[in-house]
Predict the structure.
Amino acid sequence: MEAIFHEKQEGSLCAQHCLNTLLQGPYFTAVDLAAIAQHLDEEERRRMAEGDTESEEYRKFLEQPSSNMDDSGFFSIQVICNALTVWGLDLVPYSSPAAQDARKNPQNQQAFICNLQQHWFTLRKLGNQWFNINSLKTEPELVSETYLSMYLTQLQAEGYSIFVVHGKLPECEADQLLRLCPALPHKKPTPRDKKTSHQLINKADLSSAL
């Protein structure tokens, strides 16, 4: 899984990590996303100013902090959607009628973006396998096609917002390599493996003592 691009969590920049793991490269920085957020804020102010700029509603709007970013590094779904339009990609809510096929056969999709409160992460198909690429985890996790549907259902039950990624994702090295050499699931050590390992350690200790 070393070929898979995976950013570790920095501050609250999970939106940046989510986008970059989706695209499989360091395409966006916090500065890029902040610029998009500021542009969206300006558009919102301009629309509000088309009404009565002397109104209480407009005054309260100006006093509110940005709804598209905050000082911790969090960015809104609007920022993520705007960033992906550059790549010709759209996000469709998993629970919407437009995502009926994705709910029925999620394994036929190419990627999902998941959000709970202020954390974003990516589920992406690379080669012919699915991976949970989460900046809070030490490495990407292999997700079987059988488990994928159950996992998405579990995330929904836990309150996650899930979005289906529509459009053509850019080519990446990990996709090509995993088509040729699929990732193998991590083998959990059995009691026998642990016993053998313990015996080897004891032998090594005995040899060093002699």
Remarks:
- The mean pLDDT is 85.
- Residues 14-180 form a domain with the Cathepsin B; Chain A fold (CATH 3.90.70.40).
- The first strand starts at residue 90 and ends at 93.
- The chain is about 45% helix and 15% strand.
